[in-house]
């Protein structure tokens, strides 16, 4: 009987102090700067609980044959550490994660594991719409031609 009471009490306490989960989605465009500037486009979707969040991100960078810069496609799951609220409309965050990448240049193609680390800020615009600015460093495993790869982007973020 004490286990039932303890479980009921723990459930009640968690229900009273738990914060609601917030989700967001970001469509972004930017530049992969390694080894030459190329356009990157992608999508990120996440869910946050107070200061910790989880995010899935997909991005595709075009190649530049004249600069011997490969195309790079990444997909990663990330953990996000963010301020619980925005300060003067700014909500900074730090993120790190792991996933897969595919690098292609001419006949060279490499698919392997990747780690990423970065951070940025979400800036309130109007209502649930925010501007998201992000910088990431990708450590590409396997036979990648260029590692680490650096990426910077800006995107529209919808919080719901």
Instruction: Give the termini separation.
Output: 41 Å
Helical/strand content category: mainly beta
CATH topology: Porin
Low-confidence stretches: none
Computed Rg: 19 Å
Domain module count: 1
What overall geometry do the principal axes of the alpha carbons give? globular
CATH architecture label: Beta Barrel
Q: Strand fraction band?
A: over 45%
Number of alpha- plus pi-helical segments: 1
Residue-averaged pLDDT: 91
What does this entry look like structurally?
The protein is mainly beta and 160 residues long. It has one domain (20-159): Porin (Beta Barrel), CATH 2.40.160. The protein has one helix and eight strands, in the order H-E-E-E-E-E-E-E-E. The protein has an eight-stranded antiparallel beta barrel with strand order 1-2-3-4-5-6-7-8. Strand 2 and strand 3 form a beta hairpin. The longest helix has 16 residues, at 2-17. The radius of gyration is 19 Å and the shape is globular.
Helix/strand layout:
Elements: H1 2-17, E1 22-32, E2 38-49, E3 52-61, E4 71-82, E5 90-105, E6 108-126, E7 129-140, E8 149-159
Antiparallel strand pairs: 1-2, 1-8, 2-3, 3-4, 4-5, 5-6, 6-7, 7-8
């Amino acid at each position: 009987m004490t286990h039932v009471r303890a479980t009921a009490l723990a459930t009640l306490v968690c229900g009273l102090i738990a914060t609601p989960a917030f989700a967001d989605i970001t469509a972004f465009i930017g530049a992969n700067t390694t080894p030459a500037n190329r356009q990157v486009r992608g999508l990120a979707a996440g869910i946050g609980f107070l200061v910790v969040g989880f995010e899935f991100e997909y991005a595709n960078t075009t190649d530049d044959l004249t600069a011997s810069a490969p195309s790079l496609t990444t997909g990663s799951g990330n953990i996000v550490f963010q301020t619980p609220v925005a300060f003067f409309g700014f909500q900074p965050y730090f993120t790190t994660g792991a996933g897969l990448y595919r690098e292609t240049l001419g006949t060279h193609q490499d698919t392997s594991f990747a780690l990423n680390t970065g951070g940025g800020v979400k800036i309130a615009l109007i209502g649930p719409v925010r501007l998201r600015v992000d910088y990431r460093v990708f450590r590409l495993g396997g036979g990648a031609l260029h590692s680490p790869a650096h990426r910077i982007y800006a995107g529209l973020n919808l919080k719901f």
